[in-house]
Design goal:
The chain is 26% helix and 24% strand. It is globular. Helix 1 packs parallel to helix 2 (78-90). With 165 residues, the protein is α/β, with parallel strands linked by helices. A hairpin with a 7-residue loop joins strand 1 (2-12) and strand 2.
Length: 165
């Protein structure tokens, strides 16, 4: 299965808890003013890679806690990312996903592929970057409106559970 990406960071400590392998997807409909990855907006940019290639590279580093999908907008490519997330979970590692859409907006899409990616997401960092709410002291996000959601606990409890980071 193929995925369009802008690039990867093989060891990141700013894209979620622990040392993470971060995949920056290519293509984003949000175009948030002040976005720190504007080069990822163009859906025709980036490069195409096989999900298996990314997973092979991920497996080479036993120090990684998990994988993060950032962007661009990961939920514009839910099927290949869900496949990659399943492989990561198969190793006992976790998956964090950034989205410019809120959790509620993603649910309202009623898109089976989006739903599968949500099911394979352990932590969701949601909401658009808002320049007027920019805060450089926040962990894993850029503006006050963005939430760090523990989706495993949210699914278990049947109500939204935020992580204290």
């Amino acid at each position: 299965m193929e995925l369009k990406i802008a690039g990867v960071v093989k060891e990141s400590i700013v894209d979620g808890r622990g040392i993470r392998y971060t995949v920056f997807t290519q293509g984003c409909p949000h175009h948030c003013p002040g976005c720190h990855n504007p080069q990822t907006h163009d859906f025709h940019g980036g490069k195409t890679v096989e999900v298996g290639e990314l997973f092979e590279e991920f497996q080479k580093n036993p120090m990684l806690k998990g994988m993060t999908f950032s962007g661009g907008e990961p939920f514009c490519q839910p099927a290949p990312l869900a496949e990659l997330a399943k492989l990561v979970h198969g190793m006992g590692k976790d998956v964090t996903v950034f989205s410019g859409w809120t959790y509620e907006q993603l649910l309202e899409k009623h898109d089976p592929q989006v739903d599968v990616l949500l099911q394979e997401t352990d932590v969701l960092i949601d909401g658009p970057f808002l320049e007027e709410q920019k805060n450089l002291e926040l962990a894993f996000r850029g503006s006050e409106n963005q939430r760090v959601i523990d989706l495993k606990e949210t699914r278990r409890k049947g109500q939204l559970v935020l992580l204290d980071v």
